Amino acid sequence: MARKIHLFGYFVVICMIGILISTVSAIPSQPTLFFAPDVVESNTGDNDQVWLMMDGAFRGLSGYGVILSIDNPEIGSIIDIDIPDWAGLQDIQKFSESSYLIQAVDSNDKIGPGSPKIPLGIIKIHANSPGYLTIRATPVQIDDDQKGRYEPVPVTGTIIITGAGPVPKIPMNT
Predict the structure, then answer these.
(1) Model pTM?
(2) Phi, psi of 20 (to 5 degrees)
(3) Is 120:54 a contact under the CB 8 Å cutoff?
(4) Would you say residue 21 lies in a domain?
(5) Of 128, 72, 122, 80, which is closest to residue 98 (Cα–Cα)?
(6) Is residue 90 part of a domain?
(7) How far is the C-alpha of 48 from the C-alpha of 40, rounded, in Å?
(8) Lowest mean pLDDT among 4-8, 77-81, 86-90
(9) How many distinct structural domains can be found in the chain?
């Protein structure tokens, strides 16, 4: 009888280890960048904004560099970019009319491990003419609080601008 209880104890320990391993492996290792909203509908002449966000910074966030770009500056243009107040050091470099590098450092440790849905920037767009454009965020460097580096994939959002005439169709991503 004692041997059966002993074996049962081993079985319980092995099951607990399996559950622990599966729980740890379910936590994503890389955060996700996203735009909020991911589709913006606007009218010609309007100014709208979209937030660049990051979710899943399980090791915190010490700083980042991200290139923001739009693919169709005749349709819409970036008129301003704001970096949230949590970033003690901020820098925005304009490469062209359609491309910017935004950088920020969490010098006051306001973004700790596990912080959900971290705002990285507010991008203000002016709707120039009817059509659609794609806004893209390409990470250059995103560092965690443990002297490591995240490697999230680039993200895109869509801006649809209407005017006189039919609403433009969004092309299908392939």
Answers:
(1) 0.78
(2) -60, -45
(3) yes
(4) no
(5) 72
(6) yes
(7) 8
(8) 4-8
(9) 1
Does the residue 48 lie in any domain? yes
Average pLDDT over residues 22-33: 63
| Structural domain for 83, as ranges | 29-162
Does residue 139 lie within any of the structural domains?
Answer: yes
Cβ distance 57 to 150 under 8 Å? yes
Give the tens place of pLDDT for each residue, 138-162.
Answer: 999 999 999 999 999 999 999 999 9
Q: How far is CA 55 from CA 29, 35, 75, 124, in A?
A: 11, 11, 30, 21
Which residue's entry shows tokens 């770009």? 69
CATH number of the domain where residue 143 is located: 2.60.40.680
